[in-house]
Every structure is written in structure tokens, then in C-alpha cells.
UniProtKB/TrEMBL annotation, chains A, B:
Keyword Oxidoreductase belongs to the record: yes
Gene3D superfamilies, alphabetized: Acyl-CoA dehydrogenase/oxidase, N-terminal domain, Butyryl-CoA Dehydrogenase, subunit A, domain 2, Butyryl-CoA Dehydrogenase, subunit A, domain 3
Record's GO cellular component terms: peroxisome
Keyword field: FAD, Fatty acid metabolism, Flavoprotein, Lipid metabolism, Oxidoreductase, Peroxisome
Ranges of residues in domain Acyl-CoA oxidase C-terminal: 566-731
Biological source species: Hevea brasiliensis
Transmembrane segment boundaries: none
One BP term from GO: long-chain fatty acid metabolic process
Protein name: Acyl-coenzyme A oxidase
Acyl-CoA oxidase/dehydrogenase middle domain span: 199-301
Cell compartments where the protein resides: Peroxisome
Domain Acyl-coenzyme A oxidase N-terminal: 105-197
Active-site residue list: E489
Obligatory cofactor(s): FAD
Length: 739, 739
């Protein structure tokens, strides 16, 4: 889809394509030509909307109303070529013909996977519906003999939180990572075939981030060779685990291990919760759902649960013993498996979270960008059409940096996959050298990308004006379902403090000759990056002229164009991160007690951690022009947003920041013609987007109007309650009314 | 409620009170003493929780469980004195004994005003419930013969968007403001007695902010002396008006006036929509609800509606003709009533929005602050209790600036009431001189306070960790119900652009001798504020020493303590606003076409407008120490957040910003002991707060646990859908299952 008339192709991807005839064939065809008909048929068969309206000689499309002339057909064809190219090159989901594409089609066509009525369902109906979807998806996975990865993608397109997320994403990996060979052989086949359903019971009512503070106990009873799992206090109730409330038959439960009256830290235990016969909770177990959560639909499809144990006994071999064993006599024995292995799992989970952030963000940006081209407001000259809101700089200034972030997160997500592979290979070879850096890196990126995405979804909602507030825009539910990512798997502030701690350690070791590795490698150049390029201490002669220079020009030769050079931007971001880290380290060193200093300066440390993480996301490789523009927008927007950091550390001057801002504005103009192509390249189906405002065909208003009438309030013309509560008021009978 | 043990009173309001024995009497009493018993009885009778647990000799309290020793009684008594003082001095809602207090009690005790089940109801049940509440409230208003203001407060405590908001808040004021005397005499009595119910139909499916772009037409037919109201296109459908969907019998409809084939701008018309007999829509009228909106509960209690007219005829005298009349012959005649009067209404509406922002923000802050003292995480030494999360600097750094803003918005809201009165008096005296400034000021404050509040509610939710995501925390619904304030009554970005336009005009007139008035008065000192105090052009002799000074010290004598002086902070904020405005004006002057320049630089102009508006909120009068601390936190936090502005305009140096940051940290420590008292002073009842996390008695965990079991999913132990969708999976019968 392009919203640009032919005359405006100059400077857009369309003119690029036109000029690159070796690689692209542009079709300027009439409606009745063969290629048009074939392609249109394909589009229609796939059930996509057509921007141009209907083509009468194709079945099934005729009901669509015509609202733009046939001449626009070439745009559609171009869209197809462009988006297929984009998919292929960027690796976005859903390229036609793959098993993934089949899954997408399944979702779209089967009534079982309907999403649009979700916000209107009661909690019970909603939940039952989710159980139904999970069963349908599983049946399909079995029928198609999907691989684990393919099955994961199919569940992704179901697009609804469900107990299966925890079964596959936490229960199975916990057993794989922490169970012995024997335990894996016993439990994994049951889990793989869904003969048992598991969840991950760690968080408690009174304890979240601080795992070492968990209160649930697992006391070894040598007489019976069993552990006694118990909830000693109200605050020790397990609270939040997904899938626990109504579905799971088993759980990996984290509890304080006690043998012989001594505590041995927190460990995982496999505990059966419900009967496999009638699903009733087993004796000593109290379990239920913890109640409604943010939004309608959203995470209310998940049975986050509460769980209490009253001296529940399990066999000794149900403690996950890969790292530490409890013997028949109740002795704790460390195995020779390195504890660091669990960090590998953490890297994996956080890598998927970054990848999910990029999906959620690109989805919101896709909706907001498309609607911004449909929506018009103000600026009409003598009764003509109003201006598309995407043409306003204030809109571009909010929207395009989010578009840039969606791409940036996508690339950093891909890179994290590589990092995880690298870490895994090293761990297998007993090389733990990169682990602390990889751990800090994933922790920081988890925090950075989830916070940015949550804020961005809400910003996209606001960018859609009033209509973004309607459930049918898809954005309210996307927001509500996404925001917990900022809290689960590590609260974002707690994670940034971990990153800050790692950075302070790295800085303190700079003098020792220990080379910083990976994403902190730039710190090896700290000395150079700390040199203020305008430092007057280096200037031998002073004059008014020179002083002016000093005050206005750090990287003295810089012009507006210099802000487009990746090397310049990168260096400025590196300088900022290094300077902030070093300054914080200096402040810390003034405290007699380092821990006290860390606590006192924690808010500043978080800022240094953010500066470092923003640098990691910074794309470094050579990229094509449009992506380079996005990359520059990503960097220059952050530079503007955190201008205080850059100025206070002397990395740039006010004059330079003003040049950078000019450059940013001009980049917006360059991205504008390609905005739709860039979001179309995400290749989301209308079903997956689930947004009337973000429809591929741009046919927003008629659809909004149509959707409105589906609300239950419109079932009757006169609403329920009129006779009891409205009529008595109007008829002045409220004094006598029995309300 | 205080969460501080006696030994820690030093430096808190408690020690202030203790030392000020002339004004405060501190009660250190034993449980059986008379004053204690009487007060405790009062608390119990009012149904409040007791932090200390139960007092066995008072009825109705015995069921509460004891969880802290009797010695804490004095804290409660202190609370009562403190909060009553606070209420009285700050004018917060709900001082005991007032009719408002009665309304609050009514809400709390009557089942009709129950709120806690709202998120679980279906749309239809929810809406019927709202109709019921509105009827109950009206009955009560009649019974108690409440004044208009008292009735407004009662509706405020119902705490649920309803059609009555639009009837009283928009329909009635529109007739008052735009109707002739005659029209007012005819329609207002009907509206006051609710013999008709009205709404305000302005926004259309395709048109929001740009009122002049509305498409609905009102064509005068001289033959019948009627207007023909018509919706010529789909996008002209009225869309969003609250109360329109299912309830209103009448609407003020905005439409393009056409007489004799000529257009005469957009005007308001009173149109009857539904029969007063059977509530059916009248001929030619299509009306319904526009569907579900953000969140569960929240704004879904409101019947925002869609409305289409098919040549609906109304008598000529139903056009609101105070400013312009259409004669029997179809001629348009301007009345001698100044058009500016409508701006007065706008000032009024926006003033109430600022006031509502302060309520919503203080509510969220109250919940987050209380829960931050209850929640503990990390930091336990050898198995002792963990640290209260409010004691972490990262938590304070996010929470206390919001607390400061809640107070700041409260004060600026009070000031706006004065401004509105002042404007009204001037308008009555035909003095329009302050109107542009007042208009810009309220537009800017509406934008600033609603954006800040929406973000702050979500931040408070995150500050409550995982539990903030539960509906029972009250924060998800508060967020969902609040956010539309950023869009309605003027999109926040559009409003800031209006402010920017006004500021640019003010700057351009600085040389002309025209004095800027009101909130822009500081611009008269532009010349002084533009002088960089460290400008080297003023320095006669250069030396290394002086240069160092120049680079590190603008207000050269400034120390950390200087950042606490209101005059210093104010000047820095004024300098920043002036410098940003002047810089933008200079950039604008470089464009040959000013409108083009305005469009190109709009994002920068918005920032200048924000700088100006933040300055308006800045409290200026002498305030008591704790409030002065909040005032400084408000300013210093903004200074840190917008550091780039201050540095790039040369208002402060990096060194100074670092001193300001040190000061901010130390202010947090001073506010910490008073945090609970400061939020208790808002004096919200538990019923109004509607949050398990924000309970006055701090009894969070048992209540969370209790609430969980009320979820419909817990009606049965085995969930609906188990037999159809879960059991077949577990029993490996999915291949044959009929899903």
C-alpha cells in the first residue's frame, strides 16, 4: 500500500525501485491485464482487503466498495513486490508459502481463533474460549507434526496469553535446565505430550524480585524420604504464576530447602497440584485464580494463580537436583555441574522478551502509521481535503522515532539470538568468561526495550487521537497485555541497577589491564573518549575568537551533515556512556561505604545504565539508505531526549545539538514517503493486527461504523434499565420510584 | 497513619507538631483513656479501618485482627488532628461534618454505589448499574435539596462516568452560554428538573479538533421556517458524544449553517433525538453506542454514541442564537453580544479539567505511597525484615516528584478558579484585554496537567510492582478512565501549539512597548533574563582561572543550598522559558513564510510552550516547610528531566546541575518521613480510592488474598471448559475430540 500519488514518488522507495531496473520490475498495467488479474486474484483468495476497491470479475471481492480509481493498481503490485522483498531481507514473519503462513491463514479463517469479540466476553467465557483455542492449536500442531519452533510460532499467532505459554516457556525449560538426566527422562515425555500440564511457581504474595526472600519451605523428612512443602505465612502464598489458577496439574515450586534443621537456599521442586482423574486439587493444596487484571480481554485469558501448601509431601526425587542433590540421609551435595548454567536459561528467556518487544512495538507503530495517513485534520484550503496528520512535524516527531526503534529492537533481537548461541557454546566448553557481560547486556536490553515498548504503545494510541481509545483500534488491549513485561522476569529498575553494578565494576578494572569485552569493549578507549575535544587545557593560545570556538564547537569541524555519519553518532554515544559511568564511579568513591553510596546514588546509576544500553541497541553495520535514515533518527532522537546527559558531560555543545535537531527534522521528511512501506514490511495480517484503525486497505471509517453496532448495548434500541432508572426521572416519578 | 516508629519522629511533621505546643496538642495516652475511646469509637462508627487492630470494648470493631501493639494508638490520634488540619488548610475534599462528608458516607454504605465489582460486569450489566447509580444520586440530590455545587461533588464521589456528566457539564452550559434569554427560559427549567436529558454532539467520525471542518449541515428552509439537519457523508456521523448512545433525549448539535445556499460557519442547534414517551429514536435519526473502550469498567459505563440525521427538521428557534440570529427570512444577523464570551466557557471547562487532574494524580500517588511503605523487598540482614521499598532512592526518585506534582496541580487548580472569576468579571465589564493570555494559560495548563497525570498514574501502577497490575489495585481502571482527558476538550499537542503561537506573538511585541500580562509578565524582563550571567563578553580580562569560572559557574556564587531558594529556581525557570521562546522566534524569522516556519518548527515550539507552562505551575507564595520541600522537588526534578533545555540555553552550567541533583536527593530524604502524612492529607476514603493496595489501614496482603476468591473463575473448583478442552489433551484424546 502506498498513500503517495505517482507525482510524489521522487525521493521515495518507489523512485529507487524504478531506477534500479536490474532488480525490480515495475508494473504500470491496466486493470484487465493478465498479471493484474492474477495478482488481484491471489490477494482476494488470501482474503486481503484491496485499497483500490473491487475488481468486478473476481469472485468474493465484489462486495467491497470502490473508493479509488483503477490507476492505483500498480501501487498494490508494487506493495506486493516490496513487502516480499522486505520480508525476505529482514526476516519478518509470515512470508507466503511457509508453514508459518499456513498457521496465519488458519488463525484468520477458523472461527475458533476469533479475537474481535474478546473485550466483550465475561471472564468465564473469555477463559473458556482460551482453553478452546489452546486445544485447537494443539490438535493442529499434532496434525501438522510441527517442529518445536513452528509450534511456538503458531502459538504466537494465536495471540492470546494462555497456560501453554508457561508450560512450554517455563515448566519444560526449568526441568531441562535444573533436572538431572533421570528427572528429564521421567518428566519431559509427559510434558511434551501434555499428559501433564505444568507451571512455574516462584513469586509469592509478599516476595517478587528478591528470590532469596521466598518463604515457602521444603523440609526433608528422613523417616519417609520425602519433602514437606509448606506455606508458613499468608505472604508465602504463591501468587501470580500463569496457568496455576485453574489448569496446571503440576508446578515447579521454589522453596527454601531445610534439612536437619538447617537452611540451604531456594530450590525448585516438582509438585503435583491436581488429580489427573478429576482435576480436583490434591489434599493440602489450596489453589485458585487471583482475579481480574488490567484491561478487558488482555491478560484475563490467563489463570494467574494463588497456591498454598499445608504440609504437602512429595518424594525426594522430585527436587530438581542437577546442581545440588539431597541424599537419602538428608545431606546436601553440590554436583559438578556449574551453577552458571542457570544464567544461560536467563539469557535465553530475556532474548525472547526483547524479540517480543520488537513485535509488539512494530504492531503498534504499524497501526499508528497507517491510520496517520488515513486521518486528516486542519489545513484545508478553501474547502479542499484536509492535511494527512502524518504530514505534521509534531506527529512525525513522535511517530518516526518509534518506527526507528521498532527496527532497532528487531535488529538487536536478532543479534541477541546470536549472543545466546555464543554463550551456550562457551558454557558447553566450560568457558564462563563472557557470561557476566552477556548477563548484564541481556538484563539491560530487557529493561530498555520493554519500558520503551510499553510507553510507545500508549504513545501510538494517543497518536491515533480519540479513536485510539476505542477497543476496536486494538491498541488498548495491546497496551494492557504488554505492560506486565516491564515487571515480570526482573523488574526493569532492579535490572538496570544490576547493569550499573556491572558497569561500575568494569570502570574500576580499567586501570588493571583487564580488557572490557563484548558490548563494553568501547570502554577500553575511555581515556580517549574522556578527552573533551574542546578542552581549553589543550589550547595553547587564548583569544576571543578561540574562546568562541571553544564554547560552541567540541568536535570542531562538525556540520549538520556530520550528524548523519554513523561513526560520529557512535562516538558521541560512546563518549556519553563512558563519561557518565566514570563520573558515577568517581561519586561512588567518595562514600566510605560503597554499598551506602550505591544506594544513595542509585537513581543516577540507573541513568548511566540506560546510556550504556541505548548504545548497545545502536545499529552498527552498513545498512541500506532507508534503514540508515531510521538508524539516524533513532540516535538523534535519543540525543535530543537525553540532551542533558550529552551537554553536561561535554560530549557536544549547544550549537551542535541545534545542528543535530535540524538534521533530525530533515530526516523526518525523508522517511515520510516511505513510512507506509516500512510498516507494511512487517507483513502483519489484519487478523493479527486486530485493529480497525490499522487495516491494510485503509478503509477505516466504514469499518469503525460497522464495528460500533456489534456492541451488546446495541442489542436493543431502548437500553436495559430505561424503565427502572431513566423513565422515572424524566417523568418526575423518582420520589416514588423503587430504585 | 504513620509508618514511623516513635524513635524516628525527629525531622518529621510529628516532631514539628510536638515542638509547636501552642497550636497542637499531642496525645500520648493509654488505650483505656477517655479521649482514646471516644476517638476510636468515632473512627469505628465511620467504618474506617484501624491500623492498630481492634479495641475489644467497642462494638463492630472486634472482628478486625490485631496486628500491632496498643502503643501505636497515639499515631492514629495524631493522624486525625493532622489530617483535619491539612484538610482545613489545603481545602481538600471531605472534611468531617460537611454535606460532602455525608455524600461520602452515602457512597460508602449504600450497596447502590458499590464499585468493586465493576470490572467483572458485562457491558450491559455495567451500564444498567450506572443508570441505577445516576437515579439514586438524583433522588438523593432532590431529597437533600443540594445546591448545584454540592450536587456536583456528590456526583464526583459516585466516581463513575455517566450521561449526567454531559447533561450538567456540557448541555446545560451550552444553552446558558449560547442561548438567548428566551431560549434559556424555555430549555433550562426542563434540563434542571431532568424532564429532558441532553448531550453535546460536536465531534464527528472524521472530525475532531478542527471544529470548522465539521460536515453536518443545518439548512434553513424559509417555506416552513425550519432547519433541516442532515449528515451528508459517513464521516459526518456524530461520534463520541457521551450520553448520546442510549440515554439522551436531546442534544446540542453542531452543524454548518446554510441559508439561501450560503454557508455561515458552525453553530449549535437543540435537536430532540428520542421520544419522551417510549424513548424510541425520532424519524430520520439513527443513534447507537460506539462500542467498548479502553479497560474494564472505566469509561464503558458511558454510552458514547454515534448519530446520523436524515433530513431531520427542527423549528428555527432551536438554533442557539445568542451571538448570531437567523431571521424569519433566513438572514444572518450578528447580535451585539461579543463572541469572546464563548472563551469564558472554555476557561471554565479547562479549569475543572486541571482540578480533576490534581484529584486523579493525588489518588494514584496516595495508593503508591501507602503501598510503598507496606511492601518490603531485599535488604534484610540475617533474616530480619526486608527494607520498605519507599526507602529506596530509585523509588523516591520516581514517586516523590509525582507527590510534589499532585500538590502543585492542586494549587494551580485553585488559582485557576480565581482566574476564571477574574475573567468572568472582566467580560461582564466588556474588558477583553486579559482574555488571550487567560486562554493560552488554561489551554497550556490543561495540556500539561492531563499529560503529566496520565503518565503519572501509569508510573504509580508500575511503582506498585506486579500487584499494581491487578484490577483490585484500582490503578488500571483509574488509568483507563483518566487517559481520554489528554484528548478530549482539545488534543494536548494542538493546545500546546496554540500556546506556542501566543508566546511567539508575545515575543514579537516585546520591542513595541506592549507589556506582557499575567503569566507572561516575566517576559518583560527578557533582556535581563537573556543575559548569560557567565557571558564572556562581559569579562574584561581573560585568564585560565577566569575561563574555568566561566565554564563552570553561571550564577557564580551558587552553592547546593542556593537551589532551595524559590527566587533562584524561579529565575532559572524564567530564563529557560524566555531563552527558548526567543530562540524559536529567531528561527521562525528565518523562514520567508511564517506559517511554513511554524509547521516546520512545530515540535520545537511545543517544547517552548511546555517550558512556559511548567513555569506557571511553579508555586510562588510562601509555603510551610514540607510544602516548600515539595515545591523544590517539583522544580528540581523538572530541571533534571529537561536538563538539555537549561544547559543548551546557558541558564545553568553542568556543575550547577550536579549541585541541583545533590540537593534533590537530600530533599527526598526530608520528605520521606512525611510521605504518608502528605498523602493522608488528601483525605480520601477507602471507598473512593477503590484500591486494596492503597488501604488506609495498610492491611494489604490479607485483603488481596480475600479479593482474589471473588473472581468468577473461582465460582467452581474445576473451570468451565475443562471437560471439553483440557481433559481430552491430558488423556491424549485430542485426535478424536470434537472441539
Amino acid at each position: 500500500m502506498t498513500d503517495l500519488p505517482r507525482g510524489n514518488w521522487t525521493g521515495s522507495y518507489l523512485s529507487d525501485l524504478a531506477s534500479d531496473s536490474d532488480h525490480f520490475k515495475l508494473h504500470f498495467l491496466r486493470g484487465e491485464e493478465d498479471l493484474v488479474i492474477q495478482t488481484a486474484k491471489k490477494i482476494a483468495a488470501a482474503g486481503h482487503g484491496l485499497r483500490l476497491g473491487h475488481i468486478p470479475w473476481i469472485n468474493g471481492v465484489s462486495k467491497m466498495k470502490m473508493h479509488c480509481p483503477y490507476q492505483r493498481l500498480p501501487d498494490i503490485l508494487l506493495y506486493i513486490e516490496e513487502s516480499v522483498c522486505a520480508c525476505a531481507s529482514l526476516g519478518f514473519v509470515g512470508t507466503a508459502g511457509s508453514t508459518i503462513a499456513e498457521s496465519i491463514e488458519l488463525m484468520r479463517k477458523s472461527d475458533a481463533f476469533r479475537k474481535d469479540n474478546r473485550v466483550m466476553l465475561s471472564r468465564k467465557e473469555l477463559f473458556k474460549n482460551t482453553l478452546r483455542k489452546a486445544a485447537h492449536a494443539w490438535k493442529r500442531i499434532i496434525e501438522l507434526r510441527l517442529s518445536e519452533e513452528e509450534a511456538r510460532k503458531l502459538r504466537f499467532f494465536v495471540d492470546e496469553p494462555a497456560f501453554t505459554d508457561l508450560h512450554w516457556g517455563m515448566f519444560v525449560p526449568a526441568i531441562k535446565g535444573q533436572g538431572t538426566e533421570e528427572q528429564q527422562q521421567k518428566w519431559l515425555p509427559l510434558a511434551y505430550k501434555i499428559q501433564i500440564i505444568g507451571c512455574y511457581a516462584q513469586t509469592e504474595l509478599g516476595h517478587g524480585s528478591n528470590v532469596q526472600g521466598l518463604e515457602t519451605t521444603a523440609t526433608f523428612d528422613p523417616e519417609t524420604d520425602e519433602f514437606v512443602i509448606h506455606s508458613p505465612t499468608l505472604t508465602s502464598s504463591k501468587w501470580w504464576p500463569g496457568g496455576l489458577g485453574k489448569v496446571s496439574t503440576h508446578a515447579v515450586v521454589y522453596a527454601r530447602l531445610i534439612t536437619d534443621g538447617q537452611e540451604h537456599g531456594v530450590h525448585g521442586f516438582i509438585v503435583q497440584l491436581r488429580s489427573l482423574d478429576d482435576h480436583m486439587p490434591l489434599p493440602g493444596i489450596t489453589v485458585g485464580d487471583i482475579g481480574m487484571k488490567f484491561g478487558s480481554g488482555a491478560y484475563n485469558t490467563m489463570d494467574n494463580g494463588v497456591l498454598r501448601f499445608d504440609h504437602v509431601r512429595i518424594p525426594r526425587n522430585q527436587m530438581l537436583m542437577r546442581v545440588m542433590q539431597v541424599t537419602r540421609e538428608g545431606k546436601c551435595v553440590q554436583s559438578n555441574v556449574p551453577r552458571q548454567l542457570i544464567y544461560g536459561t536467563m539469557v535465553y528467556v530475556r532474548q525472547t522478551i526483547v524479540s517480543d518487544a520488537s513485535s509488539a512495538l512494530s504492531r503498534a507503530v504499524c497501526i499508528a502509521t497507517r491510520y496517520s495517513t488515513v486521518r486528516r485534520q486542519f489545513g484545508s484550503q478553501e474547502g479542499g481535503v484536509e492535511t494527512q496528520v502524518i504530514d505534521y512535524k509534531t506527529q512525525q516527531n513522535r511517530l518516526f522515532p518509534l518506527l526507528a526503534s521498532a527496527y532497532a529492537f528487531r535488529f538487536v533481537g536478532e543479534w541477541l539470538k546470536w549472543l545466546y548461541m555464543d554463550v551456550t557454546q562457551r558454557l558447553q566448553a566450560n568457558d564462563f568468561s563472557t557470561l557476566p557481560e552477556a548477563h548484564a547486556c541481556t538484563a539491560g536490553l530487557k529493561s530498555l526495550t520493554t519500558s520503551a515498548t510499553a510507553d510507545a504503545i500508549e504513545e501510538c494510541r494517543k497518536l491515533c487521537g480519540g479513536h485510539g481509545y476505542l477497543s476496536s483500534s486494538g491498541l488498548p488491549e495491546l497496551f494492557a497485555v504488554y505492560v506486565p513485561a516491564c515487571t515480570y522476569e526482573g523488574d526493569n529498575v532492579v535490572l538496570l541497577l544490576q547493569v550499573a553494578r556491572f558497569l561500575m565494576k568494569t570502570v574500576s578494572q580499567l586501570g588493571s589491564g583487564k580488557k572490557p569485552v563484548g558490548t563494553t569493549a568501547y570502554m577500553a578507549r575511555a581515556e580517549d573518549l574522556l578527552q573533551c575535544h574542546c578542552s581549553f587545557k589543550r589550547v595553547p593560545i587564548l583569544s576571543f575568537f578561540l574562546l568562541d570556538l571553544l564554547l560552541h564547537c567540541c568536535y570542531c569541524t562538525m556540520s549538520t551533515e556530520d550528524w548523519l555519519k554513523p561513526s560520529v553518532l557512535l562516538e558521541v554515544f560512546e563518549a556519553r556512556a563512558v563519561r557518565m559511568c566514570v563520573a558515577r564511579a568517581q561519586s561512588l568513591s567518595k562514600f566510605p561505604n560503597p554499598e551506602e553510596g550505591f544506594a544513595e546514588l542509585s537513581a543516577d546509576l540507573v541513568e548511566a545504565a540506560i546510556a550504556h544500553c541505548q548504545l548497545i541497541v545502536f545499529p552498527r553495520k552498513g545498512v541500506k539508505q532507508q534503514l540508515q535514515n531510521l538508524c539516524n533518527i533513532y540516535a538523534l532522537n535519543l540525543l535530543h531526549k537525553h540532551l542533558g546527559d550529552f551537554l553536561s558531560t561535554g560530549c557536544i555543545t549547544p550549537k551542535q545539538s541545534s545542528l543535530a535537531n535540524d538534521q533530525l527534522r530533515s530526516l523526518y521528511s525523508q522517511v515520510r514517503p516511505n513510512a507506509i512501506a516500512l510498516v507494511d514490511a512487517f507483513n502483519y495480517t489484519d487478523h493479527y493486527l486486530g485493529s480497525v484503525l490499522g487495516r491494510y486497505d485503509g478503509n477505516v471509517y466504514p469499518k469503525l461504523y460497522e464495528e460500533a453496532w456489534k456492541d451488546p448495548l446495541n442489542d436493543s434500541i431502548v437500553p436495559d434499565g430505561y424503565h427502572e432508572y431513566v423513565r422515572p426521572l424524566l417523568k418526575q416519578q423518582h420520589r416514588n420510584a423503587r430504585l
